[in-house]
Design a protein that fits this description.
Length: about 70
Protein backbone atom coordinates (compact mmCIF):
# COMPACT_ATOMS: atom_id res chain seq x y z
CA UNK A 1 0.00 0.00 0.00
CA UNK A 2 1.52 3.34 -0.95
CA UNK A 3 0.92 6.82 0.49
CA UNK A 4 -1.79 7.66 -2.06
CA UNK A 5 -3.77 4.52 -1.21
CA UNK A 6 -3.67 5.25 2.53
CA UNK A 7 -5.04 8.75 2.24
CA UNK A 8 -3.92 11.95 3.93
CA UNK A 9 -1.66 12.13 6.98
CA UNK A 10 -4.32 11.56 9.61
CA UNK A 11 -5.26 8.76 12.00
CA UNK A 12 -6.74 5.65 10.45
CA UNK A 13 -9.69 3.88 12.02
CA UNK A 14 -9.02 0.14 12.17
CA UNK A 15 -10.84 -2.98 13.24
CA UNK A 16 -8.27 -5.25 14.89
CA UNK A 17 -8.69 -8.91 13.98
CA UNK A 18 -6.74 -12.07 14.86
CA UNK A 19 -3.47 -11.68 12.96
CA UNK A 20 -4.75 -8.86 10.75
CA UNK A 21 -6.65 -5.60 10.78
CA UNK A 22 -9.29 -4.03 8.57
CA UNK A 23 -9.16 -0.37 7.58
CA UNK A 24 -12.51 1.25 8.43
CA UNK A 25 -11.42 4.84 7.65
CA UNK A 26 -8.32 5.67 5.61
CA UNK A 27 -5.32 7.27 7.30
CA UNK A 28 -1.59 6.86 7.65
CA UNK A 29 -1.20 5.97 11.32
CA UNK A 30 -2.88 4.85 14.54
CA UNK A 31 -2.22 6.02 18.10
CA UNK A 32 -0.65 3.70 20.69
CA UNK A 33 -3.23 3.16 23.45
CA UNK A 34 -0.56 3.29 26.16
CA UNK A 35 2.16 5.71 25.05
CA UNK A 36 0.13 7.97 22.74
CA UNK A 37 2.76 7.84 19.97
CA UNK A 38 1.81 7.66 16.32
CA UNK A 39 2.35 4.25 14.71
CA UNK A 40 2.58 4.31 10.90
CA UNK A 41 0.33 1.58 9.50
CA UNK A 42 3.27 -0.11 7.80
CA UNK A 43 4.94 -0.46 11.23
CA UNK A 44 1.87 -1.69 13.15
CA UNK A 45 2.64 -5.13 14.59
CA UNK A 46 0.98 -5.25 18.01
CA UNK A 47 -2.67 -4.88 19.01
CA UNK A 48 -5.34 -6.37 21.23
CA UNK A 49 -8.42 -7.77 19.51
CA UNK A 50 -10.59 -7.76 22.66
CA UNK A 51 -9.72 -4.19 23.66
CA UNK A 52 -9.38 -2.96 20.05
CA UNK A 53 -6.14 -1.15 20.93
CA UNK A 54 -2.86 -0.68 19.07
CA UNK A 55 0.57 -0.75 20.74
CA UNK A 56 3.87 0.77 19.63
CA UNK A 57 6.05 -2.15 20.76
CA UNK A 58 6.00 -5.69 22.09
CA UNK A 59 7.08 -4.42 25.51
CA UNK A 60 4.11 -2.05 25.68
CA UNK A 61 1.72 -4.80 24.55
CA UNK A 62 2.99 -7.17 27.27
CA UNK A 63 2.74 -4.44 29.91
CA UNK A 64 -0.89 -3.72 28.93
CA UNK A 65 -1.69 -7.45 28.94
CA UNK A 66 -0.28 -7.81 32.45
CA UNK A 67 -2.25 -4.77 33.66
CA UNK A 68 -5.49 -6.21 32.29
CA UNK A 69 -4.90 -9.60 33.94
CA UNK A 70 -4.59 -7.92 37.35
CA UNK A 71 -7.74 -5.82 36.89
Amino acid sequence: MNMMERGPNRPANLEYLDGDFRVVAQGTYVICAVSGVQIPLEDLRYWNVDLQEAYASAEIAVKRYQQNRKG
